[in-house]
């Protein structure tokens, strides 16, 4: 599956992701840290912003980090904030700022994708410690940086020869595997209300009654599977897509943990368009719909198509373009940093006070690293704020 080219650290995405967390933020302006962590051409990046991002990424459990890991996380989060500010200022200089209407549209789209009401959004935004004005400013930066990256990406061209060379060198990737396209409705006895699930079944008895009712609606009436999935499924990742899980190879279904009897049913007597009876798998109830079945593995030609109609040539072109975008984005950061005046006070504090890694007294009580090996691997926060990954190969 293709992976879209990643943007640099996005605060609006962090805030919106935090809406799924019941109690994400803590502290108010009266206790905010006024320390300047860094500056870019004189514009300040506050230590409180660095710590707020770590607080959200760690879901309020940053006190469990060792002093080493906390210092490492701060340095890496700050590095991304510096890169972000440098790119934003370059976008400003190139007159690529969005309009107020574009900012509003972007925020509304994020709300819709998050599946939250305006009231819930406002409440969680307040708990996260960010104002609407602050959110709009971060959305402005996101859009500006995106426009800057798109400006340079627009110069990318992929020749037919490059596409053909990639296909000829990687033919083993281009297959339509034996397998099935599935959709699902899930009912979970656990409490999922904090994830924004409405009509949430709580407890085994209630979950069983709900899944049986859904099954009867599917069997006896004109109810559409996708419509019911959006209305009643309790899996946030699939309900917005009408329960669509996409295509699984037969091996992929095994790796996903589907019981053998279900896989045999999908690849055997079950007709396309059919649904299963409710199945209890790993303490959750499932009803599957078989949307497509492919009984033979077929090689794809360069002029062929994937299930769904996407041409093989187009997918290769998109993947090669995304790979080149990653390189361009990295080069853009390097050039923008070289032209900016950056002062990293946090790094300077660490160099000046290596005994406690520049940590403030209130944070120095974090537990010590358990072993020298801990210093070799990044923390979850460090991983989350690491440089964008490479684009994946054109075929899966």
Q: What can you tell me about this protein's structure?
A:
The chain is of the alpha+beta class and 396 residues long. Helix content is 47%, strand content 11%. The chain is built from 15 helices and 9 strands. It has helices at residues 11-17, 47-57, 67-93, 100-114, 118-127, 132-153, 160-169, 204-220, 225-232, 236-239, 250-255, 260-267, 312-339, 345-352, 380-384; strands spanning 36-40, 43-46, 175-176, 179-187, 244-249, 279-281, 284-294, 298-299, 342-344. The strands form 3 sheets. A 4-stranded antiparallel beta sheet has the order 5-4-7-6. A hairpin with a 2-residue loop joins strand 6 and strand 7 (284-294). The longest helix is centred in the last third of the chain and has 28 residues, at 312-339. The chain is globular. The N and C termini lie close together (5 Å). The relative contact order is 0.18.
